[in-house]
């Protein structure tokens, strides 16, 4: 069976074994660590909203608006907003680190700009927006979820609480005895899995907003490199015709002439001559070479894939990359031939780019099957800044991937790291 291991919490929620995995505990750790983190943003949101709250309170109580108080609070709120791009720097750093609890996918670091540029940088204001969301929306969501958990816990404890104190009121119903509380306790037990999924969805939503707002601008975020499939197919077809023409008009006539000359030479050399054996071997090799060239026209396939399989062929590539490369392969079944060949070329081109352009000290290759998709990831710790618009390497790679119905995604902020992720259909 194919490996279907989720790589982040939102993906794990779609699995039937979510509650039996480690993901609920990771979600709980993320939620618990959110409580002390959101305290400072919550105070900041309260300070910024204080002038409006003071005015609303005065109007509702039909009394004069305290202008000195409102003026002081407004000055404090404006000053806090003005300093917010600086004040949110440590919060954003902590949140990028915490995000790995529920979403270990690499998150591009913020642009390495000076303090003065924080006010002009969109990434700084996205961090401010995240702090505001963390201080205003997340506490309300967690409070509502905590009330649901407490209600479920009260229903579970109903059979032990009923009859020992005042009657328990549940909406229009009053519970006086343990027997009357038992059906509610059964309902509470049945709701426990729903609460588990609801809590996971709440944390996954928080993590998704964190990734969206802290993931950098459109220039550094993970983005899909797409190309025109029509141009792609016509380009590959033109290249195939060129190879056929070169073989037919250039290599094949010379090889045919060589084969004929060797055949004539064999006729002129007696069988008992010492040269007869080597000449026969050369004649046979020439004919085999003609067969091999015809196979090249039909489709190029690296021989390492045939001999070693995808994981072994990638390890063979890594051993000759010129820098330390770690290969992690989680492939439960052999990959279809076309997908396997595409994945090999992806790793080959990506490692070549790392060696030539990245200035990296190490790299990592990951191969994994997720459902019916083969995921290939190549990451390095180099200088980053890879841009498909500045060269044909990445766009050509995207062309090859698109030809088999896959997609290529790139994250390469200035200063690194760089991640190339390719998702290929893996249908059998």
UniProtKB/TrEMBL annotation:
Coiled coil: none annotated. It comes from the Bacteria. The chain crosses the membrane at residues 27-49, 69-94, 128-161, 181-204. Keywords: ATP-binding, Kinase, Membrane, Nucleotide-binding, Phosphoprotein, Transferase, Transmembrane, Transmembrane helix, Two-component regulatory system. Its EC number is 2.7.13.3. Residues 239-305 form the Signal transduction histidine kinase subgroup 3 dimerisation and phosphoacceptor domain. One of its GO terms (molecular function) is protein dimerization activity. Residues 72-214 form the Putative sensor domain. SUPFAM superfamilies: ATPase domain of HSP90 chaperone/DNA topoisomerase II/histidine kinase. It is an enzyme of class 2 (transferase). It catalyses: ATP + protein L-histidine = ADP + protein N-phospho-L-histidine. The keyword 4Fe-4S does not apply. One of its GO terms (cellular component) is membrane. InterPro entries: HATPase_C_sf, Put_sensor_dom, Sensor_HK_TwoCompSys, Sig_transdc_His_kin_sub3_dim/P. This is histidine kinase. It comes from Micromonospora auratinigra.
């Amino acid at each position: 069976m194919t490996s279907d291991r989720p790589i982040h919490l939102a993906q794990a929620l779609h699995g039937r074994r979510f509650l039996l995995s480690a993901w609920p505990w990771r979600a709980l750790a993320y939620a618990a660590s959110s409580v002390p983190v959101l305290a400072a943003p919550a105070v900041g949101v309260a300070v910024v909203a204080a002038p409006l709250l003071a005015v609303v309170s005065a109007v509702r109580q039909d009394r004069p608006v305290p202008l000195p108080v409102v003026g002081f609070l407004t000055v404090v709120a404006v000053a806090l907003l003005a300093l917010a791009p600086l004040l949110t720097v440590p919060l954003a750093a902590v949140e990028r680190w915490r995000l790995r609890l529920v979403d270990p996918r690499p998150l591009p670091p913020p642009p390495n700009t000076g303090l003065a540029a924080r006010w002009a940088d969109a990434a700084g204001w996205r961090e401010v927006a995240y702090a505001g969301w963390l201080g205003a929306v997340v506490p309300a969501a967690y409070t509502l979820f905590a009330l649901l958990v407490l209600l479920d816990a009260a229903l579970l404890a109903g059979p032990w609480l009923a009859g020992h104190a005042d009657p328990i009121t549940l909406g229009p119903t009053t519970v006086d005895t343990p027997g009357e509380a038992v059906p509610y306790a059964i309902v509470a037990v049945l709701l426990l899995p729903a609460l588990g999924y609801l809590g996971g969805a709440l944390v996954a939503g928080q993590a998704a907003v964190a990734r969206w707002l802290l993931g950098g601008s459109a220039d550094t975020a993970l983005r899909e490199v797409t190309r025109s499939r029509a141009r792609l197919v016509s380009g590959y077809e033109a290249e195939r015709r060129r190879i056929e023409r070169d073989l037919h008009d250039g290599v094949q006539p010379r090889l045919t002439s060589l084969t004929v000359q060797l055949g004539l030479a064999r006729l002129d050399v007696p069988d008992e001559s010492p040269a007869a054996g080597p000449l026969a071997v050369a004649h046979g090799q020439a004919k085999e070479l003609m067969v091999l060239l015809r196979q090249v026209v039909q489709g190029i396939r690296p021989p390492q894939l045939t001999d070693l399989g995808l994981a072994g062929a990638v390890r063979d590539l890594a051993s000759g990359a010129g820098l330390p490369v770690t290969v992690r392969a989680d492939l439960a079944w052999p990959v279809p031939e076309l997908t396997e060949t595409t994945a090999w070329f992806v790793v080959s081109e990506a490692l070549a780019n790392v060696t030539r352009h990245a200035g990296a000290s190490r790299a990592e290759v990951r191969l994994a099957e997720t459902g019916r998709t083969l995921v290939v990831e190549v990451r390095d710790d180099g200088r980053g800044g890879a841009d498909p618009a500045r060269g044909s390497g990445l766009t050509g790679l995207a062309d090859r991937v698109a030809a088999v119905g896959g997609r290529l995604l790139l994250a390469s902020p200035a200063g690194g790291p760089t991640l190339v992720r390719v998702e290929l259909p893996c249908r059998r």
